[in-house]
């Protein structure tokens, strides 16, 4: 026959779990500032490449970040255009398609989406 477990341990465990869950952790403002100021990230490298007058090709971004082609295209569409709202321009040249960030901050489509969200 098996012995039954004492119930006092389970009640202590559940009480300890509820007390630890009731404490809320708050993020400090300092940690969020550090993430936005980091310069050695792949995102920062890509944005620096795109801000040059010569721009960057997908192949150049792939070698700089060790990402696959679909990841680079997803970053350009999702982060650069949609999340950051930058004016990303692509042009066909002898090197292939070259991507560049123009000086104006937001595209007209991104500005319209921001107006609709507000």
Description:
- The structure is a single chain.
- The protein has a domain at 42-118: Arc Repressor Mutant, subunit A.
- Helices cover 58% and strands 12% of the residues.
- It is built from 6 helices and 3 strands; from the N terminus they run αααβααββα.
- A 3-stranded antiparallel β-sheet has the order 1-3-2.
- The model is unreliable at 30-35 (pLDDT under 50).
Strand portion, in percent? 5-15%
Count the DSSP helices: 6
N-C termini distance: 68 Å
Q: Report the biggest beta sheet as strand number plus sense, adding barrel if it closes.
A: 3 strands, antiparallel
**Mean pLDDT over the residues:** 77
What form results from the Cα inertia axes?
elongated
Main CATH class of one domain: Mainly Alpha
> Do you know the CATH topology of one domain?
Arc Repressor Mutant, subunit A
Major β-sheet strand ordering: 1-3-2
Report the count of strand segments. Answer: 3
What distinguishing features does this structure have?
6 helices; Arc Repressor Mutant, subunit A; three-stranded antiparallel beta sheet; mainly alpha; elongated; 118 residues
């Amino acid at each position: 026959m098996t012995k039954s477990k004492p119930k006092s341990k389970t009640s202590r465990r559940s009480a300890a779990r509820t007390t630890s869950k009731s404490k809320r952790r708050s993020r400090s403002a300092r940690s969020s500032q550090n993430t936005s100021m980091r310069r050695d990230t792949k995102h920062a490298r890509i944005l620096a490449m795109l801000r040059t007058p010569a721009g960057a090709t997908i192949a150049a971004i792939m070698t700089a970040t060790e990402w696959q082609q679909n990841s680079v295209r997803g970053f350009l569409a999702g982060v650069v255009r949609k999340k950051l709202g930058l004016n990303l321009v692509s042009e066909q040249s002898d090197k292939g398609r070259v991507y560049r960030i123009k000086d104006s901050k937001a595209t007209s489509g991104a500005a319209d989406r921001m107006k609709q969200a507000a």
